[in-house]
C-alpha cells in the first residue's frame, strides 16, 4: 500500500524528498482530479491531504473521511499550520489509524 499526499506545493515537494508521491492542488478542480486519481489507484493506502486543499472540497473530503476504509484519508497541516481545534498532526494520525508518530 502506498502513502500519497494531496495539497499545498510545499507539502507535496517535502514529501517527495522522502519518496512519497503527491498531487499539487490549489483549486477545487485540482483537488477533485487528485482525489479521482487516488481513488482509481488499487494500491493507495493512506492519503494525506493538507487542510487548505481539503477545504476546497470540504463536503467530498468529509464524506471520504467518514466512508472510505481503504484508502484512509487524513488531513494534515497546510502552510498556515493546523487549525487550533483539530489538535496536532500526531493526534490526528493517532485518532485516525491508531499509530503514534
What does this molecule look like?
The chain has helices spanning 9-16, 28-39, 51-56, 58-67, 89-97, and strands at 2-7, 21-24, 44-50, 72-76. With 101 residues, it is an alpha/beta fold. The protein has a single domain (2-97), classed as 3-Layer(aba) Sandwich (Rossmann fold), CATH 3.40.50.10580. The chain has a four-stranded parallel beta sheet, sandwiched between helices. Helix 1 (9-16) links the parallel strand 1 and strand 2 (21-24). The radius of gyration is 12 Å and the shape is globular.
In short:
The protein is built from five helices and four strands. The chain is α/β, with parallel strands linked by helices.
Features:
single chain, alpha/beta
CATH H-level superfamily: ATPase, V1 complex, subunit F
Q: Helix count? A: 5
Helix content: 40-55%
What is the count of β-strands?
4
What's the Cα radius of gyration?
12 Å
CATH C-level: Alpha Beta
Order of helices and strands: EHEHEHHEH
Largest sheet: 4 strands, parallel
Give me the CATH architecture, please: 3-Layer(aba) Sandwich
User: Could you report the average pLDDT, rounded to the nearest whole number?
Assistant: 85
Distance between the termini: 18 Å
Domains (count): 1
Low-confidence stretches: none
Structural class: alpha/beta
Amino acid at each position: 500500500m502506498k502513502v500519497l499526499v494531496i495539497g499545498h506545493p510545499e507539502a507535496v515537494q517535502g514529501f517527495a524528498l522522502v519518496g512519497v508521491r503527491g498531487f499539487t492542488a490549489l483549486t477545487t478542480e485540482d483537488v477533485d482530479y487528485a482525489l479521482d486519481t487516488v481513488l482509481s489507484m488499487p494500491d493507495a493506502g493512506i492519503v494525506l491531504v493538507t487542510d487548505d486543499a481539503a477545504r476546497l472540497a470540504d463536503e467530498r473530503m468529509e464524506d471520504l473521511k467518514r466512508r472510505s476504509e481503504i484508502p484512509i484519508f487524513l488531513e494534515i497541516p497546510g502552510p498556515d499550520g493546523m487549525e487550533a481545534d483539530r489538535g496536532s498532526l500526531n493526534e490526528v494520525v493517532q485518532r485516525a489509524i491508531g499509530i503514534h508518530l
